Queue: 3 jobs
Job 1
Amino acid sequence: MIKIVQSEDPVLREVAKEVPLSLIGKPKIKKIINDMIIALNAESDGVAIAAPQIGVSLRIFVVSGRIFDDDFIRGQGSIEGDLYKKARQKDMVFINPILKKISKDKKLLSEGCLSVRPIYGKVRRATRATVEAYDENGKKVVKDASGLLAHIFQHETDHLDGVLFIDKAKDLHEASMDNDEFNEKN
Ligand code: ZN
């Protein structure tokens, strides 16, 4: 069982270090990514995870392929049509990600975090964002996103800079079963 650290852990407040490119694909980094995927998939409500959340101060985050599942996104209105795909997609790995081309257009969305349970709040973030990064094989990737995925990119890159969503959120509150906000956590 891989532990997801909680908000009082100082590792979440560090600026994470870049992964040396020569180490991408090597056992040490592969194991860290694998541990992140195991930890993420163990959380039924998890959509993404950053390496500091398992106590590793490196610039890596993983987005679960689960965010593209019909069952997962049904009933919550923040998903753009282009995310609406049938098949379970692969988890996506982003190493040394850089946020580019953030839209001026912003939207308030409810967010939670696997490291700040059980708190939710609303965060205003760009509705479109582009991330440039390396994948787990060291290949450079550029990914455009809108809606939920764009918010996730911003939440996760914040983690790599020691920022938690509670630093920026409005209406912080504990989750309850009777509200209708969506329950994903990053
Ligand atoms: Zn988080």
Note: The chain has one domain: 10-174.
Job 2
Amino acid sequence: MDGNYDVAAIRREFPILERKVNGFPLVYLDSAASAQKPRTVIETQREYLSHFHSNIHRGVHTLATQATEAFEGARETIKAHFNAAENAEIIFTAGATDGINLVAGTWGRANLTASSTVLMTRLEHHSNIVPWQILASEIGFKIEVIEIFPEGTIDLEDYNAKLALAPSLVCFSHVSNTLGTINDAKQLTSLAHDAGAMVMVDGAQAAPHMNVDLQDINCDFYVASGHKMYGPTGIGFLYGKRALLDAMPPWRGGGEMISSVSFDVPTTFNVPPYKFEAGTPHISGAIALGAAIKWMESVGLDNIAAHELALTKYAHEKLLQIEGLRIYGTAEHKAGVVSFLVEGIHPSDLGTLLDQLGIAVRTGHHCTEPLMDWYKIPGTVRASFGAYNTFDDVDALVAALERAIKMLK
Ligand code: PLP
């Protein structure tokens, strides 16, 4: 127990943490890729599937009403937790990637032209780069990259210089999945708005680790993934300001997103959020995501953030005692992500040996190839923390690394 943070009690809520991997107790240090699930999320999904599964919105029977209430209740939970102005601003998506593709495919296609410029940082995950590149190849707009400093922070001078190009849109991640840098989303948004640009924030790595207030940040779009917030895979949300969503054309066509369909007069579309939710959604996922958010709230995002920060500082201190180890991402404000390399050893060799000792880390470019190219490295080993990690996990990582390095050198 550190302070009032009862990590042992938290760990008991995660059945997967009881298992062994390759004969060793699992040390799960890959929450940035996907967080494990507490019992309440597993149970919520089971309860829905066992007792009130039905399609939503269209039915008059009891199960349909209960499923609809739970689904819309999850939307309300997201709206309240992230402080959106209204439920209509929360669109259920398959995840962060899906949300960004939605913005590119609707707002982007409707508003960007061949003479537009889109800014994005060098820190971006491929999911906040490639949808814009695909659209740029169709429309012909220009993508400009906001540069960073070696510790992984945004170069504000470069940002201001690029804002002078009068971009239509600025895209940035709230927290870098590779370096852990926490960007000042409110400041970056305000600068972009002053320059007349819209703002798309990738919150995939922020939402599980800190309180996020969307009206305070004042961004135009924000996306997050359920599975990184201790919820299921295949579910997430896009936040968009209501006036923008009202003006945007629909994305995927199908049931639920229409107001009326005809062969004789033009088909008309539903209001947000339904306009962007064609077809049967991931109902159990959405309901369980609501449970995951309530679980995070029960622990307290500020408590989770403080615990993960302590783990990160401890990990930095311990890892830097290993000869030849370099940490990538040393921003003053960083989340629980520690990327590193050991001189002369390929990250995937280290990752494989660590797995043999029960330690789950991620190796590779972490879907940030432009960032890896900039550092001139093939990738890193990345240890990332969740609410359930302990100082013992860090010690186990360090001990296993020392063993692995001896074997590989
Ligand atoms: N953005 C960031 C910063 C991420 O770390 C990830 C996933 O690792 C994504 C976007 C994509 O999330 P998803 O695969 O859940 O759509």
Note: The two ends are 37 Å apart (CA to CA).
Job 3
Amino acid sequence: MPKTVFQKIIDREIPADIVYEDEICIAFRDIEPQAPVHCLIVPKKLIPRISEADAKDDALLGHLLLTVTKVAKLTGILKTGFRTVINCGVDGGETVPHLHVHVLGGRSLQWPPG
Ligand code: AMP
């Protein structure tokens, strides 16, 4: 299977504006930001989408959610608030088949999403 664009970022084959990295995940700014701050948190383990994670991934999934707060702090949106999104499948708007958590903030976000 060809590498996803996110795997290429993890492997430093293409550039990204990285805001955080540890042994389990990497976080970088979205190339088409939908808010003043828009980051993606991507596990280094390839899980195509949240619906394909299983019980073995429970610690990894918890780590991704705990990383949300770190990324919000690093990007200056912890106090003002933010939204965390995981798109899944066609109707969910998923375009990159490598699990990722969106972190959006820096403006007042509308609800419900379109
Ligand atoms: P999703 O639609 O939930 O699969 O989100 C995929 C996101 O990846 C989109 O918001 C894209 O703008 C973003 N994206 C695609 N390629 C890159 C890239 N090379 N660097 C940063 N973000 C990217």
Note: DSSP finds three helices and five strands in the chain.
